[in-house]
Amino acid sequence: MEPNFHIALICPEIAPNTGNAGRLCLAVGARLHLVHPLGFQTDEKAVRRAGLDYWKQVDVVEHASADAFWAWVGDRPAHLFSSHGATVFTAAPFARGDVLVFGRESVGLPREWVTARGGYTIPMVGPTRSLNLSNAVSVVAYAALARIEPRLFGG
Q1: pLDDT by residue (tens digit) across 12-31?
Q2: Distance (Å, rounded) from C-alpha 80 to C-alpha 60?
């Protein structure tokens, strides 16, 4: 079955954030893409130790590198989410099959990617510099789901 959309984590560093994103993917019908290098292991033992009992149900694809990931993306619409984005995330033209791209916890996406491809941001008030990765993925994923499946939201 084709996913509603794809969520890509570029070189994630923190296993629990990726675990949370995986659980979210199950909830919204998305496929999770992990782009290497990762800051943790995803083998059966590591997943079990992390308590991710649902991980075997996650539709996950691992890409050996950013180049391999972008080769897979090809002509698919890809939306990059970054604190350096110029447009608010709710303006993204979400559609079924789109790829939602998020960067690593410590540095986000490469600025040159955001400059070249455009980027969306999640507005924040107060002194917070950025959201936790799994929180940012959740905010954007539900905005995408609301656009793709409005009936789930009473529309």
Answers
A1: 999 889 988 999 999 999 99
A2: 19
- Torsion angle, alpha carbons of 22, 73, 61, 147, to 10: 30
pTM of the model: 0.94
Domain that holds residue 23: 5-153
CA-based torsion, 133, 13, 22, 81: positive or negative? positive
> In this structure, what CATH number is given to the domain that contains residue 109?
3.40.1280.10
Q: What is the pLDDT of residues 100-150, one digit of tens each?
A: 999 999 999 999 999 999 999 999 998 888 899 999 999 999 999 999 999
54 C-beta neighbours (distance < 10 Å), count? 12
Retrieve residue 132's tokens: 């936790």
Domain count, the chain: 1
Query: CA 148, CA 25: separation in Å to the nearest integer?
Result: 14
Three-state secondary structure readout of 63-99: ECCHHHHHHHHCCCCEEEECCCCCEEHHHCCCCCCCE
Across 72-89, b (16+ Cβ under 10 Å) vs e yields: ebeeeebbbbbbebeeeb
